[in-house]
Amino acid sequence: MARTTERGFTLIEVLVVTVLIGVLAGIAIVHYTDMKARGLDSQVASVVRNVATGEEAYFASRLRYAGALDELDGIVTGGVAIKVASGNSGDLGSSFRVYGSVGGAMHAYEWVSDPAPGESHLIEQ
After folding, report:
1. pLDDT (0 to 100) of residue 1
2. Is residue 5 a part of any domain in this protein?
């Protein structure tokens, strides 16, 4: 009887490897998406804090808070949408509120210069 020396993988072996690669890729894509959203959240929180610091510096020199982002010097938003409004007092002369968001992030963030007693300045929304 002649002996064959065919080499290769069987169909079952190829299918098992393909399924395993698909499962691992599915897990990796979900993990990557979550990490990307967390990174965007950190970016938004950082920009909101940076704008709040810029508002305080602006107040120190002009005795009022800036109503627009372009009045603040050296603020880089990096694609984060920022809105500046009056704080809990209702007047930009005495308090401010900074709201920041970006597409793809899990949360938006808000900084209030005059939070209620016991509340944080940075609020995750």
Report:
1. 60
2. no
